[in-house]
Design a protein that fits this description.
The chain has ten helices and 26 strands. It is globular. The protein has 465 residues and is α/β, with parallel strands linked by helices. Helix 1 crosses helix 2 and helix 4 crosses helix 5. Helix content is 25%, strand content 28%. Helix 2 links the parallel strand 3 and strand 4. The chain has three domains: 123 residues, Rossmann fold (3-Layer(aba) Sandwich), CATH 3.40.50.980; 185 residues, ANL, N-terminal domain (Rossmann fold, 3-Layer(aba) Sandwich), CATH 3.40.50; 83 residues, GMP Synthetase, Chain A, domain 3 (2-Layer Sandwich). The strands form six sheets. The chain has an eight-stranded mixed β-sheet, with helices on one face. It has a five-stranded mixed β-sheet with strand order 12-13-14-15-16. Strands 2-1-11-10 form a four-stranded mixed β-sheet.
Length: 465
């Protein structure tokens, strides 16, 4: 049974959200029985996620009934959502109560815990028998590219991450990262697998209710992306009285060495654990973690592979690098490696194209102790708030909307958008922030006289100033 749910008692709590709504194993099983005659197996189901027990139940029961969820944010831009809807033509849509429907000719067939299930007018179509889940891989920019999870990926990662972290049923984890984001879903899966209750919130990390929720339930585990930890440190998190907190976990991008060291020092002084990890959507989230005992010694390291996983570095010719402190592309193999990508409906019939091995596109080095460090990326994407965002996709969106020349560069949590028309600066800043769903402060629009290009018309990004 999925995530060991069949081993749990009916009155056990699976989830609690910040409105104090709860989800028990019994309620989950009762909903599954009701949905069994309403939700067709092997159907594509859009789930518009928020961090509530209603969304959690929708996700768990969709998978348990052998339908295939596409995990999307409930706040996804309607135009972009329509694009995905037209491309993948889901038979069903789960959405929060009161959510403006972006589809027509659909009827509500079920409602519970703040969520509604709609049957659309789209017909079922053939998909691969091993397909279990679909996740976006380009942040919120509306790309139709999805990652295809096969049966076993989620549970393999949940099992091995829970083993590596030593999770037990006594954990009280906070999940404030979105469930449509691979790291947020990993928090859910690993702790449910371990028999724990997941505590969900949509509250902002800068708000008092966020911290009140942590204190109310004396939560033990926090998982954050770099931007989240930066905000926490601005709030002087290390001075808060949180004696019940045992583990700080990091994923979703590279911390600055200063932040990494600060968290490692804080954990060391307070008897807590700081665990740096690294993962991708293509590997069902985490594929490495750094032993917390090494956090102070190995500043910036992503550690070693999780159980049942294997890491290697390849040079530009595809040869394995065995020498220490030598740069190469990070490649991971393990049972949590997904099947590949989809960009259209017919791609959902494809089999396993990754075959258990994923080339990350990240450049890394391995030290003499076997610990890995990410040093750069081969391709043009940033991780913003832990989400991977394509610079090329943002360029296309801006070009399509404003009909101007644009070039995008930047670093994690700081995107630079270069344009040549000063009058559009504020409009473009607002547009990019709205389309991605990220804070305006994470973007900077710069006006230059000309976008530098070579003789073939390709942008010379290194020449941008």
């Amino acid at each position: 049974m999925f995530l060991n749910l069949d081993r749990r008692k009916e009155d056990e709590l699976v989830g609690v959200d910040s409105s104090d709504a709860v989800l028990t194993v019994g309620e989950l099983n009762e909903e599954k029985m009701k949905l069994s005659s309403l939700l067709s197996a092997r159907s594509i189901v859009f789930i518009l996620c928020n961090n509530t027990v209603g969304a959690l139940a929708a996700y768990l029961n969709t998978v348990r009934l052998d339908a295939v969820p596409v995990m999307l944010s409930s706040k996804t831009d309607k135009q972009l959502l329509n694009n995905l809807y037209e491309v993948y033509q889901p038979a069903y849509v789960w959405c929060p109560d009161g959510n403006d429907r972006f589809f027509s000719d659909a009827s509500m067939v079920y409602q519970a815990k703040g969520y509604q299930l709609y049957r659309t007018s789209n017909a079922l179509y053939d998909i691969h028998p091993s397909l279990e889940l679909l996740m976006t891989t380009s942040g919120s920019t509306g790309s139709p590219k999805l990652v295809r999870y096969k049966k076993g990926n989620l549970e393999a990662n949940a099992k091995n991450v829970a083993l590596a972290f030593g999770w037990t049923a006594e954990e009280r984890p906070l999940c404030d990262l979105a469930m449509n984001y691979t790291m947020g879903l990993n928090v859910v899966n690993t702790h449910i697998y371990a028999g724990a209750t997941v505590y969900l919130t949509n509250e902002n990390i800068m708000s008092a209710p966020y911290w009140d929720y942590i204190k109310k339930y004396q939560l033990t585990n926090l998982t954050q992306v770099p931007f989240g930890y930066e905000l926490m440190l601005k709030l002087r998190f290390t001075r808060m009285d949180l004696p019940y907190l045992t583990t700080l976990s990091q994923g979703g991008g590279k911390l600055t060495d200063k932040t990494f060291e600060t968290l490692a020092d804080y954990a060391g002084k307070t008897g807590k654990r700081f665990i740096a990890t690294f993962g991708t959507t293509e590997t069902a989230a985490r594929m490495t973690l750094l032993d917390p005992a090494l956090a102070k010694e190995k500043i910036g390291s992503i550690g070693r592979a999780i159980p049942e996983g294997m890491l290697m570095l390849l040079d530009d010719n595809g040869n394995e690098i065995t020498a220490a402190d030598t740069e190469g592309e990070l490649v991971y193999s393990g049972p949590n490696v997904t099947m590949g990508y989809a960009v259209c409906r017919t791609d959902l019939e494809k089999g396993d194209e990754f075959c258990g091995t994923y080339h990350t596109g990240d450049i890394a080095v391995r030290d003499a102790d076997g610990c890995y460090y990410i040093v750069g990326r081969k391709s043009r994407f940033l991780k913003m708030l832990g989400y991977r965002v394509s610079l090329d996709q943002i360029e296309r969106l801006v070009k399509d909307q404003f009909r101007i020349e644009v070039a995008c560069t930047g670093s994690d949590d700081h995107m630079l958008v270069f344009i040549t028309e000063d009058t559009r600066k504020d409009d473009i800043l607002s547009f990019v922030s709205e389309k991605t769903g990220f804070y305006r402060s994470l973007f900077e629009v710069k006006v230059i006289s000309e976008i530098p290009k070579n003789d073939t018309g390709k942008i010379m990004y290194k020449n941008l100033i």
